[in-house]
Write a structure and sequence with these properties.
The chain is α+β, with helices and mostly antiparallel strands. It is built from 5 helices and 10 strands. Strands 1-6-5-4-3-7-8-10 form an 8-stranded antiparallel β-barrel.
Length: 264
Amino acid sequence: MAVEKKDFTYEMKFLLPKLCIEPALAWARANLIIDPHIHDAKSDCYRVTSIYFDTPALDTYRRTGSYGRSKYRVRRYASEESVFLERKMKTRGIVGKKRVRVPDEDLAKLLVTDVDPNWIGCWFHRRLMVRDLRPRCQISYERVARVGSSTTGPIRLTLDRNVRAHKLDQLGFVVPDGGTSLLDGDAILELKYQESLPAPFKQLADHLGVKSGAVSKYRLSIEAMGMAPKINGHVHPGAADASSVVDHGARNVAMPQADFGSAI
């Protein structure tokens, strides 16, 4: 299996109040199609479960130096018997990703200190060792994913709800039920696009009356489980709303012609 590198895309996040969830889903299902990467083509909803890594001092959470620009995680989609080793990087709202799929049994390779240079996940393992990253928590949620295209490229909408977090002190997935519930019934809406904000996404944000902000499930989880004092609110002060993004002329949504990849 080859290592995947996702091109950098723009990402906007919204903390969506309960009353906005159904209108957002109705709009997405009327204007976008089911993500073709979803195995169950009859549904646009699936479970995502991720194990997040951080240092003993929580440098990723605290955004210490270069730790603040990337997150390392092991991600499982639905009940697949394989996982993705992922590094997500974000700079000034632009998101990129490097990942590789490995079978479940390969997770044992991350438990030893010696990095196997012949293993396809060696780059991920090496970064964990060099940066002293260890399993800190598991985050699971239900995701609705829809896609389309605009004149500037593919667009993707995801809505995550029923977010739950578990504290971890060793590598391994736990049953997602239970744990600490986040968001109190609210949801996280994410819009991904290239170059400039497509008009349909701006119209959706304006229709819902919501503003974008820096919403991190990992940071919310660490704070909710009492692993660190709360540093920032759910949405950073001064976050720009959709109307502040330049060049949002009229664009029509059509069938996807390019590929973001599953759950980019």
